[in-house]
Design a protein that fits this description.
CATH architecture of one domain: Orthogonal Bundle
Number of helices: 7
Number of strands: 0
CATH class of one domain: Mainly Alpha
Radius of gyration: 33 Å
Helix content: 25-40%
CATH superfamily of one domain: Cytochrome c-like domain
Strand content: under 5%
Largest sheet: none
Amino acid sequence: MNSFEANKIFGALLGTVFVLFGGSLLAEGIFHAEAPEKPGFAIEVPDAPAGGGAAPAANEVTPVGQLMQTANAEAGAAIFKRCQACHSGEKGGPNKVGPDLWDVVNRPIASHEGFSYSAAMTEFSEGKTVVWDWDHLNHFLHGPKQYIKGTAMGFAGIAKDQERADLLAYLGTLSDNPPAPPAPDAGAPAGGEAAAEGAAPAEGAA
Protein backbone atom coordinates (compact mmCIF):
# COMPACT_ATOMS: atom_id res chain seq x y z
CA MET A 1 0.00 0.00 0.00
CA ASN A 2 1.50 3.38 -1.05
CA SER A 3 1.47 6.52 1.08
CA PHE A 4 -1.31 8.11 -0.99
CA GLU A 5 -3.78 5.34 -0.23
CA ALA A 6 -2.74 5.30 3.43
CA ASN A 7 -3.39 9.04 3.65
CA LYS A 8 -6.83 8.56 2.09
CA ILE A 9 -7.76 5.93 4.66
CA PHE A 10 -6.43 8.00 7.54
CA GLY A 11 -8.29 11.06 6.24
CA ALA A 12 -11.55 9.11 6.01
CA LEU A 13 -11.21 7.83 9.58
CA LEU A 14 -10.39 11.29 10.87
CA GLY A 15 -13.37 12.76 9.01
CA THR A 16 -15.67 10.13 10.51
CA VAL A 17 -14.44 11.00 14.01
CA PHE A 18 -15.07 14.71 13.39
CA VAL A 19 -18.57 14.01 12.05
CA LEU A 20 -19.50 11.85 15.06
CA PHE A 21 -18.05 14.31 17.55
CA GLY A 22 -19.72 17.27 15.87
CA GLY A 23 -23.06 15.45 15.71
CA SER A 24 -22.84 14.67 19.41
CA LEU A 25 -22.23 18.33 20.29
CA LEU A 26 -25.06 19.44 18.01
CA ALA A 27 -27.52 16.94 19.49
CA GLU A 28 -26.62 17.97 23.02
CA GLY A 29 -27.19 21.59 22.16
CA ILE A 30 -30.60 20.89 20.62
CA PHE A 31 -32.00 18.36 23.09
CA HIS A 32 -30.28 19.35 26.31
CA ALA A 33 -32.74 19.78 29.22
CA GLU A 34 -31.77 21.42 32.45
CA ALA A 35 -32.93 19.93 35.75
CA PRO A 36 -35.98 21.85 37.08
CA GLU A 37 -35.54 23.91 40.20
CA LYS A 38 -38.50 22.08 41.79
CA PRO A 39 -39.59 18.51 40.99
CA GLY A 40 -42.89 18.32 39.12
CA PHE A 41 -44.27 15.50 41.28
CA ALA A 42 -43.13 15.78 44.85
CA ILE A 43 -44.17 12.77 46.93
CA GLU A 44 -44.99 13.87 50.43
CA VAL A 45 -45.09 11.31 53.24
CA PRO A 46 -47.51 12.34 56.01
CA ASP A 47 -46.13 12.56 59.50
CA ALA A 48 -46.97 9.76 61.89
CA PRO A 49 -49.81 10.58 64.31
CA ALA A 50 -48.73 12.15 67.57
CA GLY A 51 -47.95 9.61 70.24
CA GLY A 52 -47.13 6.91 67.72
CA GLY A 53 -50.78 5.95 67.12
CA ALA A 54 -51.72 4.02 64.01
CA ALA A 55 -53.47 5.72 61.12
CA PRO A 56 -57.24 5.10 60.77
CA ALA A 57 -58.05 1.84 59.00
CA ALA A 58 -58.99 2.28 55.36
CA ASN A 59 -61.39 -0.63 55.63
CA GLU A 60 -63.29 0.65 58.68
CA VAL A 61 -66.78 -0.79 59.13
CA THR A 62 -69.71 1.56 59.76
CA PRO A 63 -71.15 1.02 63.28
CA VAL A 64 -74.20 -1.21 63.09
CA GLY A 65 -76.42 1.20 65.07
CA GLN A 66 -75.77 3.95 62.56
CA LEU A 67 -75.93 1.53 59.65
CA MET A 68 -79.40 0.21 60.39
CA GLN A 69 -81.16 3.53 60.80
CA THR A 70 -82.19 3.24 57.15
CA ALA A 71 -82.43 -0.58 56.90
CA ASN A 72 -85.22 -2.11 54.84
CA ALA A 73 -86.04 -5.77 55.51
CA GLU A 74 -88.02 -6.12 52.28
CA ALA A 75 -84.99 -5.03 50.28
CA GLY A 76 -82.93 -7.40 52.39
CA ALA A 77 -85.16 -10.32 51.32
CA ALA A 78 -84.08 -9.71 47.73
CA ILE A 79 -80.43 -9.59 48.76
CA PHE A 80 -80.84 -12.84 50.71
CA LYS A 81 -81.61 -14.63 47.43
CA ARG A 82 -77.87 -14.45 46.72
CA CYS A 83 -77.30 -16.49 49.87
CA GLN A 84 -79.80 -19.24 49.20
CA ALA A 85 -77.39 -21.34 47.16
CA CYS A 86 -75.55 -22.02 50.43
CA HIS A 87 -78.15 -21.31 53.14
CA SER A 88 -81.76 -22.00 53.95
CA GLY A 89 -83.64 -19.44 55.99
CA GLU A 90 -86.80 -21.24 57.04
CA LYS A 91 -87.58 -22.66 60.45
CA GLY A 92 -86.26 -26.21 60.63
CA GLY A 93 -84.62 -25.76 57.24
CA PRO A 94 -81.76 -27.99 56.11
CA ASN A 95 -78.08 -27.23 56.38
CA LYS A 96 -76.48 -26.77 52.97
CA VAL A 97 -72.94 -25.59 52.30
CA GLY A 98 -73.61 -23.30 55.26
CA PRO A 99 -75.95 -23.72 58.24
CA ASP A 100 -79.63 -22.83 58.27
CA LEU A 101 -80.02 -19.15 59.22
CA TRP A 102 -83.34 -19.25 61.03
CA ASP A 103 -82.88 -17.50 64.38
CA VAL A 104 -79.29 -16.61 63.51
CA VAL A 105 -79.38 -13.23 65.30
CA ASN A 106 -78.18 -13.74 68.89
CA ARG A 107 -77.61 -17.44 68.29
CA PRO A 108 -74.44 -18.87 69.86
CA ILE A 109 -71.67 -19.16 67.30
CA ALA A 110 -70.89 -22.59 65.84
CA SER A 111 -73.92 -24.07 67.56
CA HIS A 112 -76.36 -25.06 64.83
CA GLU A 113 -77.15 -28.73 65.15
CA GLY A 114 -75.82 -31.01 62.43
CA PHE A 115 -73.45 -28.53 60.81
CA SER A 116 -69.69 -29.08 60.80
CA TYR A 117 -67.97 -25.77 61.53
CA SER A 118 -64.39 -24.88 60.72
CA ALA A 119 -61.77 -24.96 63.45
CA ALA A 120 -61.44 -21.16 63.20
CA MET A 121 -65.16 -20.65 63.73
CA THR A 122 -65.28 -23.12 66.60
CA GLU A 123 -62.35 -21.41 68.32
CA PHE A 124 -63.92 -18.01 67.75
CA SER A 125 -67.10 -19.15 69.49
CA GLU A 126 -65.19 -19.66 72.76
CA GLY A 127 -67.12 -22.81 73.54
CA LYS A 128 -70.37 -21.42 72.08
CA THR A 129 -70.40 -18.64 74.67
CA VAL A 130 -70.20 -15.86 72.06
CA VAL A 131 -73.33 -15.02 70.09
CA TRP A 132 -74.05 -13.53 66.70
CA ASP A 133 -75.23 -10.12 67.81
CA TRP A 134 -75.87 -7.25 65.39
CA ASP A 135 -72.37 -5.87 65.66
CA HIS A 136 -70.63 -9.14 64.91
CA LEU A 137 -72.97 -9.93 62.05
CA ASN A 138 -72.21 -6.50 60.61
CA HIS A 139 -68.45 -7.06 60.72
CA PHE A 140 -68.63 -10.62 59.48
CA LEU A 141 -70.87 -9.83 56.54
CA HIS A 142 -68.60 -6.93 55.61
CA GLY A 143 -65.61 -9.26 55.22
CA PRO A 144 -65.86 -12.84 56.55
CA LYS A 145 -62.25 -13.84 56.02
CA GLN A 146 -60.95 -10.57 57.42
CA TYR A 147 -63.11 -10.85 60.54
CA ILE A 148 -62.51 -14.53 61.29
CA LYS A 149 -59.18 -15.69 59.90
CA GLY A 150 -59.43 -19.23 58.61
CA THR A 151 -63.21 -19.39 58.27
CA ALA A 152 -64.53 -21.78 55.64
CA MET A 153 -66.96 -19.09 54.52
CA GLY A 154 -66.21 -18.50 50.84
CA PHE A 155 -68.36 -15.37 50.51
CA ALA A 156 -66.38 -12.21 49.74
CA GLY A 157 -68.59 -9.95 51.83
CA ILE A 158 -70.93 -6.99 51.29
CA ALA A 159 -69.04 -3.70 51.22
CA LYS A 160 -72.08 -1.50 50.49
CA ASP A 161 -73.51 -0.24 53.76
CA GLN A 162 -77.13 -0.04 52.62
CA GLU A 163 -77.17 -3.57 51.22
CA ARG A 164 -75.57 -4.94 54.37
CA ALA A 165 -78.05 -3.06 56.56
CA ASP A 166 -81.00 -4.37 54.54
CA LEU A 167 -79.72 -7.93 54.77
CA LEU A 168 -79.20 -7.63 58.51
CA ALA A 169 -82.75 -6.34 58.92
CA TYR A 170 -84.07 -9.30 56.95
CA LEU A 171 -82.04 -11.81 58.98
CA GLY A 172 -83.69 -10.33 62.07
CA THR A 173 -87.10 -11.30 60.71
CA LEU A 174 -86.12 -14.98 60.50
CA SER A 175 -87.39 -15.77 63.97
CA ASP A 176 -90.56 -16.46 65.94
CA ASN A 177 -89.35 -13.71 68.30
CA PRO A 178 -87.52 -11.12 66.16
CA PRO A 179 -84.73 -9.38 68.12
CA ALA A 180 -84.87 -5.69 68.89
CA PRO A 181 -82.97 -3.53 66.39
CA PRO A 182 -79.60 -2.20 67.54
CA ALA A 183 -79.41 1.09 69.42
CA PRO A 184 -78.22 4.05 67.31
CA ASP A 185 -74.84 4.03 69.08
CA ALA A 186 -74.36 0.24 68.93
CA GLY A 187 -71.09 -0.91 67.48
CA ALA A 188 -69.42 2.48 67.88
CA PRO A 189 -65.82 2.47 69.17
CA ALA A 190 -65.58 2.87 72.93
CA GLY A 191 -62.92 4.95 74.67
CA GLY A 192 -61.31 5.92 71.39
CA GLU A 193 -60.45 2.34 70.52
CA ALA A 194 -62.08 -0.09 68.14
CA ALA A 195 -64.74 -2.28 69.70
CA ALA A 196 -63.53 -5.75 70.59
CA GLU A 197 -64.32 -8.48 68.11
CA GLY A 198 -65.80 -10.84 70.65
CA ALA A 199 -68.12 -12.65 68.25
CA ALA A 200 -69.03 -12.84 64.63
CA PRO A 201 -72.00 -14.16 62.73
CA ALA A 202 -72.50 -17.78 61.88
CA GLU A 203 -70.14 -19.32 59.40
CA GLY A 204 -71.57 -18.86 55.97
CA ALA A 205 -74.15 -16.35 57.15
CA ALA A 206 -74.36 -14.37 53.96
